[in-house]
Amino acid sequence: MADVICLGELLIDFAPLQSGVGLRAVEGFKKLPGGAPANVAVGLRRFGIDSAFMGKVGNDAFGHFLAETLAQEGVDTAALHFSDEARTALAFIALGAEGEREFMFYCHPGADMLLRPEEIDVEAIRAAKVIQFGSLSLRPVPIREATLHALDTARKAGCLISYDPNLRLSLWSDEQAARDGLLLGLAQADIVKISEDELEFLSGTKDLQASVDALRHPALRLLVVTRGKRGSWYWTPGAAGEVPSFDVEAVDTTGAGDAFVAGLLQGIARNPAVLDDPDGIRALCRFANAAGALTATAIGAIPALPGLREVEQILDAGDTDEHQRGT
Question: Taking Cα atoms as reference points, which of 226, 227, 230 lies closest to residue 247?
Answer without folding.
Answer: 230
